[in-house]
Amino acid sequence: MHSTAYYTLNNIPAGAKLPVSELSTKRSTTATTKTTPAKTTAATTASSKKAPTYAEIEPLLVKNTCTACHAVNKRQVGPAFADIAKRKYSNERIVQLIYNPEPKNWPEHETPMAPMPQVPKTEALKIAAWINSLRIEKAPTP
Ligand code: HEC
Question: What does CATH list as the number for 51-136?
Answer without folding.
Answer: 1.10.760.10
